[in-house]
Structures are given as C-alpha cells and as structure tokens.
Amino acid sequence: MAGKLTAISHDREAFRAFYRTHVEAVQRFIARRVDDPYLAADLTADVFLAAISSAATYRGSGAGELAWLYGVARNVVATDRRRRYLERSAVGRIAGRRLLEPDDLVRLEERIDAEARSRELYAAMDALVEGERAVLELVALDGLSVAEAARALGIRPVAARVRLHRARKQLRDQLTPFVAANPSLTEA
Known about the structure:
Elements: H1 2-6, H2 12-31, H3 37-55, H4 65-94, H5 102-126, H6 130-141, H7 146-153, H8 157-174, H9 176-181, H10 183-187
Helix pairs in contact: 2-3, 2-4, 3-4, 6-7, 6-8, 7-8
C-alpha cells in the first residue's frame, strides 16, 4: 500500500483514483468540524494538497490510507483553527481602537508627499547616463567627495567632476521645482 500511496505525489492517474475513492470521506470528516460550506470546500482541497505533498514520504503504518488521510485532515483543520484564532485575537486587540490619530494621518500624508518627490528624483536619475548617475549617487546620496567618488569608480577626479556637472545640469533642467525645494542636491 505504501507504494500505491506514494504514487499520488507524481502520478496524476493515481491521484485521481485516490481522490475519487476518498473525497466523500474527507468531506464528511471536515463537515463534522466546520459549519461553513466554503471553508469546508477549501479545507477539503487543502487536505488533498497536503496529501500530495506528504505522500512521497509516506512509510506506511498499517492503519490504511483513510486513517493516514484522516490524520492529514486533522492537521489541516487544526492549522486552520489556530490561524483563525490568531486572526480573531489580533482583531480583538485592535477592535474599538482608532489606529491612527488625526495628527498621525497628517504626518503620513506629508511623508507620502515627500516620497512622491523622491520618486520623481529617482525617475529623473534613471534617465542619466550610468557613469553620471554613479558619480551623482556617490557624492549627493552617499556623501563622498568628488575625489573619493572618482577613486571608487576607478576614474580620474576631473572625469568625475565633469560627470557630476552633467548629471546636476540634466537634473536641474528636469526637476527645477524639486531641486529648488531641496538645496542639498545643489550643494552636493
């Protein structure tokens, strides 16, 4: 029997026969434990998915396929109950509480607005030539000097200064309002 059962993990026909033989028994097992028909259908499917996953390691206990499948079903139902309990517990802890105060909402909106500007900057930076972008990131974002950025990139400091100048100019042309609002970009 162990060979027949392990076949369901890789043989579609073996699984179909196994499923047809045991689906009603599994549905009855699940229906005795849950009262929601949609949940019962989901758990029945989960039982057979778990059976497929664990069939390859089945060694046989002499109890039979159905007993083994009931053990799988019992584990699936128990796991679902634990998950539902944890969900109810979490909902219970926050029920009746307001998660965000009005001031929190204002701060979140400000952060979202600030990040929108950052996304605009990164989109503009994506349009830069790779070498120019690399120097700009090292200097403006990582805080390296132009000479340090040049060493990190393996180029001469003069080349790094030219690339940085080009990158700043292109960004300035694309993002004049954003750069004006963020002077640290022009300082870099």
